[in-house]
Amino acid sequence: MFSVYKQKMKNRRYSNYIKPLFVISDIICIFIAYVSSYFFRFNSILDLYTSVQEQVLFVFSIIFWVFLAKKYNAYQLIRISVKLNIITRTIKLILFHALLLFALLIILKYDQFSRLQLAYFYLNLFVLLLSSRILSVLLLEHMRASGVNYRTVAIVGMNTAGRAIYSYLQKDLSLGYKIIGYFDDNSHDDIQIPVLGKLEDVASYIREHNIDELYISSLEYDSQSIKQIIEECETRLTRIKIIPAFQKYTLNRRVNVDFYGNIPVIFLRKEPLENSINRFIKRVFDVLFSLLFFVCIAPWLFPILIVFVKISSRGSVFFVQQRSGENNKPFKCYKFRTMQVNETADVEQATKNDVRITKIGKCLRKLNLDELPQFYNVLRGDMSVVGPRPHMLKHTEQYSARIKNYLVRHFIKPGLTGWAQVNGYRGEIKTDEAMQNRVEHDIWYIENWSFGLDARIVIKTIVNVFKGDENAA
Q1: Domain end: 145, 167, 183, which one?
Q2: Is the pTM value of this prediction over 0.70?
Q3: Distance separating alpha carbons of residues 169 and 177, to the nearest angstrom
Q4: What's the pLDDT tens digit per position in 102-132?
Q5: Distance of CA 174 to CAs 26, 81, 82, Å?
Q6: How many domains does the chain have?
Q7: Structural domain span for residue 396
Q8: Cβ neighbours of residue 343 closer than 8 Å, sequence gap 6 or more
Q9: What is the pLDDT of residues 167-215, one digit of tens each?
Q10: 69, 26 in Cβ contact below 8 A?
């Protein structure tokens, strides 16, 4: 038993030194970047050691960096993501660090501090940190592929989930996992690792062998057997990892787990706008952006468009239609009228070269100007500046019966523009596949919302206004 403990500690002792070494490495990089930036700026480093201002900023540079690195898990080079997002993560940390340092300069009133020196500092720091990260990853990969700093793993149950985790962990030795075998009441000839026994053999095997992590691929086994396995693992320093079987109910790969008290709850999709702060931020942006439009643009643009619409054909300037909103609740959606007055406007979508569309209307649609009255819907709270485009009630009824997950797009407010639209999915919908693509983009937006994403979509929409849109009907 004690030999098992000794082997486990031997395998893990290297991990205890990795994060402290990363911290030390980053501090060295900051020191080199700071000194070299001073030298590049002033061609000397003699005054650097006597300047209180420089010393204060250097110390705070280290404090800010350690704080940010801890907050954003910069040293969490965990095995399953050691190769991912190194450049992105480094840039993110440097940007946040720069904001804090600039704020400190303002607070301390260091007005004479060289901005060029700071530019040199962050450029040098980026190069040094990126080089350090890449070298660290290569070193870890070499160590793990050589059998150092690895973890032994066994899998309980070769069902769909068990096979998925097996395929993932064994695809790259540099991840640092060594799969020694699996337990299952049936053997599987296509699995290229040993069968260690049946479910009833797990506990006894753990007592006699070194296993760092045990993956249980299902909770459908006998609860008493699972309980016995967990108890045995906890007394042998073997970590238990359970793969929930939510794949039976959804194809979503991204789920989130939260705790209601001590009760774990799985969310089938991530929804940033479920957070009240995020919703508040989005609403403030909607109101401010809409007010800015009505103050700066609408007073001169709307009269021009109203005159054009009036002379294009008889009828009202505005077209008001019931559309599907948040939680699939209908609301009155406002547009500039682009068609001849007709009885099929509420049931039949516009098509390319539609005879109902006026010449002025075609121009308005191409430039997305017909949607501008919907800023009024945004102010009312029916819509957002960015979100899934609202569809006619009849289309919602039709497509919700034919398109998978169609109604998920109604979890949030519809938008004047959206992720699907700036990626080319707008205008006439000719096939169910085209609608499916639009829905998938809308759901991606819901799951990945951020204020930065909204800003990106708005900018891209404005660019498209000047370019014109070939997909507009």
Answers
A1: 145
A2: no
A3: 6
A4: 999 889 888 778 889 999 999 999 999 988 8
A5: 23, 11, 9
A6: 3
A7: 276-467
A8: none
A9: 888 876 656 788 899 998 888 888 888 889 888 888 889 888 888 899 9
A10: yes
